[in-house]
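User: Hey, my collaborator sent me this sequence without any context and asked if I could get a structure. I don't really work with proteins. Can you help?
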Amino acid sequence: MKTITTLIAAVTIALAAGNCLAADAKHGKMLFESPALGGGTSGKTCLTCHENGRDFSPETLTRPTYTIMGNPVANLSGVINFCIEVALRGEAIPEKGEDMQDLIAYLSVLIKENSEKPQ
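Assistant: No problem. I've predicted the 3D structure and written it out in structure-token form, which is a compact way to encode the shape of the chain:
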């Protein structure tokens, strides 16, 4: 019985971790390049301001706080939504939603690719 309980607990943890890792960077790239992100109306995309990952560093993913355009922002999802609302003139997307997770997954890929490029 103890073995079955341990096995069930291990499977539950693995499935929970799998859901966290299920973000789709390819979909995130599509969103990053879309002027329709959040229903944007400005015609801009994330790529407009962040071509080739401009302004992103490895710390982008792990900072405890952020400041954007002089405004304090609590987390990376908040920064992304700030840009959607201000630059793209759209509506914020859910911070825990699939689109947000996909965007962050793409940022991770973009930052990794940039850090591997010779200076």
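In plain terms: The helical segments are 2-20, 25-32, 46-49, 76-86, 98-116. You can pass these tokens on to your collaborator as they are.
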